[in-house]
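Course assignment 3, question 2. Fill in each field.
Student: A.L.
Task: Predict the tertiary structure for the chain below.
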Amino acid sequence: MRPQPSVRRTALALAPAVLLAGFAGGIAFPILPIVGERQGLHLAFIGAILAANRAMRVVTMPFVGALTDRIGGRRTLVAGLALQILVMLAYLWGLSPGMAGPLFLAGRMLHGPASACVFVAGQSLALQAGGRDRAGEAGALVRAAMAIGVPVGIVAGGFLAEGFGERATFEIATAAVALGTVAAWLWVPDLRAPLPARSSLAEAFAGLAQKPLAAIGALSFASNFSAQGMVLSTLVLLVEQRRVSLFAMGPQATASSLMGLMLIVESVSMPFMGRAGDRGGTHARIGAGGMIALALGLAVVGLATHNGELGVGIALIGLGTGALGPSLLALLPHWVPAERRGVGVGALQLCGDVGGALGPLVGTALLAGSVRAPYLATAGMVACLFPVGVWLTGRERAEVA
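Answer field:
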């Protein structure tokens, strides 16, 4: 029998693959709209192309979770990365005259199940490696890679396209994802629990019909609705309307810098939060603290009138999501058996993706009435869910005891 790989070694082997998946998704945003407009695509169609990834990921997430349990996280992870190579090739072929529309759309649609495979498999493998005692540590490293992947792709895509051109950018991305696929096949261990003899997808999801899992899903929805959805889509408009500027930069650069601060705080805090929850068996308590930070941060940003207040509010939002991300993931093993971790992670990711998709829609609609409305309303929503976090704290304490 092979020795069980260390938790940190497994998490560090997973992190590059997860980061590359986000990178491949992010690199499209600064390139596809410009190329599409150059080739005469309607702006609404370009918007549909960019949204196709998340829409397909939401649709396929439950099936990817069940697939992860059936064939193992390692195979699912490698399959997702291999699909990412096809996505990059579709982008490359779409640069040819007259081909942007169908090939960009096909690439974004394929990227949905591809990223679902990577994100679900990566987090499932982290939970299998960490077990109930170190799930926070392993999950935090993978979640941090997820958090920074897309922003790194967006920044890198813009600079590479400006310096080397769109075709070279996609060629570099294709090579990077191919390298990540090989590395995942060589170094990521195949960790999974044996499944029962035969079981259907309906039976798998029936096991998730528990109040603690519904509570975890609701908090994941709120976290992603707030930070990944509403804040990222409305912050630049808030900065512009209030004439806030960092170092005499324009609203776009100022908002981008603030978003970068939020993601840095989130990514840096995750490993500390995960390890702290492991040591004390207090993931739910840390998650509840994260909800307080998130609600306060949203309220501060909504009322802010100058740089210092905005910076504090954005940092609090990053700290809140940094506490919630690994904590919610680490709570899953308390109520999801090892052989159903893929389905459990898929359901958690699905709740987060739905929140991330609805955040921009609700945020921009509320912004039409008042620049404060999206932030104060979202802060109120998070505050109303705080009792759910307190209830989870009690359930976790009972489970640990």
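Instructor remarks: The first helix runs from residue 7 to 26. The domain at 7-187 is CATH 1.20.1250.20 (Growth Hormone; Chain: A;).
Grade: pending
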